[in-house]
What we know:
Elements: E1 2-4, H1 8-16, E2 23-26, H2 38-57, E3 61-67, H3 70-73, H4 92-107, E4 111-116, E5 118-120, H5 129-139, E6 141-146, E7 149-150, E8 152-154, H6 155-167, E9 173-177, E10 183-184, H7 185-196, E11 201-206, H8 217-222, H9 235-244
Parallel strand pairs: 1-2, 2-3, 3-4, 4-9, 5-8, 6-11
Antiparallel strand pairs: 7-10
Amino acid sequence: MEVVGDGMIARAFVNSRMRMDDVVVFAAGVSRSTTTEAAEFHREAGLLHKAISDARAGRRRLLYFSTASAHLYGNGDGSPRSEEDPVRPTTAYGRHKVAMEERIRTSGVDHLILRVTEVVGPHQRRHQLLPALFSQVSDGVVTVYRGARRDLVDVADLVTIAAELLSGDLRHATVNIASGHPVTAEEIVSYLMTLSGRAVTKVYVDTPANDYNVSTKRMAQHAPSTARMGFSPTYYRNVIDRYYRA
């Protein structure tokens, strides 16, 4: 298995010691979903072009990580968005991910595209959601975005699901990876505060309400191990406990 990238997801696959010599794992995407920097998008596009060429030349399969967030699917109305639903990207990051997915599909390379929600694990960059919130809670002042919702997924579970999907019969496919239980920013912050045991000041910022959710039917069908991962309304606490409980 060849892994492209050096961030949290890339490290998780390297450390898994997964034995799949016919797979190229592309985990070198733009890490900041709020970015509008063309250089960041061009960097990923260039690396992806090379990964596609290498995978095709070696007759290997490309595993690509896209997003299942509102950046790609658009603002939610409560109904789970499936892989077959039209995408309505709302940001430059979302439009970029749509373009990268299409580049893969039109290249002819054997591929599996995973649209992932909010992945949590070790070695995350400080600007990402959980490290940023944990740091703010530790400092005693945390910004809470009203209306924001996130579906947390443990990177260890992501690796397990990906391995199961790669071992199955899916080809040239796109799959949402999520717990199916998004929670509010308020719930995430409140649980971090409970773990910290300290007094914290919350600063609220109003954002448009977004009843965001994605369908996990395809994931569950092709990765039966997800039934044993504890996906439930309290799964997010298990994820936080694993990486942020002292």
